[in-house]
Design brief:
With 318 residues, the chain is of the alpha/beta class. It is 43% helix and 14% strand. It holds the Pfam family AAA_lid_2.
Length: 318
Amino acid sequence: MTDVHADTDIDHALSVEAVSDLATRISDNVEKVIVGHHDAIEDIIVTLFARGHLLLEDVPGVGKTMLARAIATSIEGSFERIQFTPDLLPSDVTGVNIFNQQTSEFEFRKGPVFGNVVLGDEINRAPPKTQAALLEVMEELQVTVDGVTRQVPDPFTVIATQNDVEPDRTYDLPLAELDRFMKKIHLGYPNESQETELLGRVSGHHPIESLEPVATSADVRDAREVILAVAVNEPVRRYVSRLAADTRQRAHLGVSPRGSIALVRAAQARAALDARDYVVPDDVQREIRSVWAHRIRTTTGDTGKDIVERALEYVPVE
């Protein structure tokens, strides 16, 4: 068994260099399972370190579930999966009180939302009422059932997948829930060489079966504290504010303040991954598309991505 603490230096546990090294270890480990998606893996690590949640929209069979499992295994975290279906109930997500006849008391049976990495598989197959069961926990890191509130494990990250090829059999995610996802990304199909390598890896036992952790949940918590201390100076904050204002002028529904906060946090994580303790405009520009495009609604033929691209083009860096 790999010693997940072997590379941990206590003296540097709260440095951006340690965070950058941690991210590299996790990324390299996940790439033992996932072929050809380095940028997507980095997106998930940024989201995890920045205390966010991620939405994966793609066709079936491109490795979304394996990606989530590999992340959880790499940080020695608990992995839970929620298979969203049209008949899934909110209590199937959050948990339910069960009457124990022996003790004559109700006992709480935790739902799958109580994990470090929670995969919401095909989240748009469930009706809005069931989707909404994630609203509280994604925002407040807690679950309330029958008036009793319980905290979920720390760290906690939701990685939800969304089927985009069967719109007649799915439900649109409510805007309040979309706004709680820090990032939305796509994996896409592998190219020929990547698929050839993938087939070679899975011709025997799947590599996920032998994957070992290279970090701990405590390492992730430490990294999150480091990222909170990454400096975001006023010129960068003003730049984000001007970008947000531009989207609100160009779209029916622009970026919310929650979206601005998410962008700043993602930029802080990106800076730490680059071993910097301060954010520069390049960090904002690198993260903005995956953080903002899914939050924007237009009444024209433009997409959220179009609005973001125009904001980047017309809003100057000062």
